[in-house]
Amino acid sequence: MNKQPLMKAVGLLRYLPIDQPESLIDVTLPKPVPVGRDLLVKVMAVSVNPVDTKVRSPKDHSEKEPRILGFDAAGVVELAGPDCTLFKPGDEVYYSGSIARSGSNSEFQLVDERIVGFKPAALDFAEAAALPLTGITAWEALYDRLGISGQQEVNRHKTILIIGAAGGVGSIATQLASHAELTVIGTASRPETVEWAKRHGAAHVIDHYEPLAPQLKALGYPHVNYILCLNDTDRYWAQMAEVIAPQGMICSIVETKEPVNISLLKNKSAAFVWEFMFTRAMYETPDMVQQHHLLNRISELVDDGTLHTTLTERISPIHAANLRLAHAKLEAGSMIGKLVVEGWGEE
């Protein structure tokens, strides 16, 4: 009888502070087998996002079996399920997986092909792994939620305020919005983050620790057509309502801790919408394949030089100690760009 092949992975049994050695542990698991529209991907690199640290953060309950975290990944298709039509073994891919399934911190991962894109040819696996979650979030926020036009001439006299422009999503959203010919006003507070935001397409940068309206007025923008909030919706709610233009649109990716006063938007007929990039995969929506298409479009924009990876730090190889280090760096709150962990070390 043939034994089922095994694979390396990094997971958790208890939800602990990241300085605890058991917060993330090395484990060995059975190598999965794809069925239906699943791909089995050999994972070459993973990036760490705030959602990783949020899911891992201390909680009262524990797991009976190791829970494998990780969302962003780049790798090579090992096997394709019998119903797959978009990919074949050997294809180089990148994706951000599903919050409802086992994660990317494993040598091999099952992922539905409808949320997978072809890796940008111009990037290595680590550079590509930095892009999917932030790229999907930024793309969906701008085009699907805010309804920004894909026609540049429509956008040339419109403005967008991106709160948190130097973060992971902000770094991609700034590039995309600038490419769409919107006037991008980003927020940042440190000299290095101001420079980062400008380098990625922000025409202006204001300080998010100071009141937004006076700074915008000083730039000649009493109102903005769009707002993308990537940090602390509660804190900025009243300010966003103040500076959004009549009939403008606000989108946030950060859940509120307290109820907000939606009536502040009424007289302006302004709209508010959420963006959560896992929605399509969680609910297997009829348009789930749109994430495949938009990742392929992002690859095209990378390969033609329009978009750039936001990778700023690499750690190697992938194991529990290095992923604990990556989580700790992210939780410190001073990261610029994306941190990627790559390779599985000696076979």
TrEMBL record:
Alphabetized Pfam families for the sequence: ADH_N, ADH_zinc_N_2
Domain Enoyl reductase (ER): start-end pairs: 19-341
Leader sequence segment: none
Origin: domain of life: Bacteria
InterPro entries: ADH-like_N, ADH_Zn_typ-1, ER, GroES-like_sf, NAD(P)-bd_dom_sf, Zinc-ADH_QOR/CCCR
Swiss-Prot/TrEMBL keywords: Metal-binding, NADP, Oxidoreductase, Zinc
SUPFAM superfamilies, per the entry: GroES-like (SSF50129), NAD(P)-binding Rossmann-fold domains (SSF51735)
Coiled coil: none
Family: Belongs to the zinc-containing alcohol dehydrogenase family. Quinone oxidoreductase subfamily.
Protein name, as recorded: Zinc-type alcohol dehydrogenase-like protein
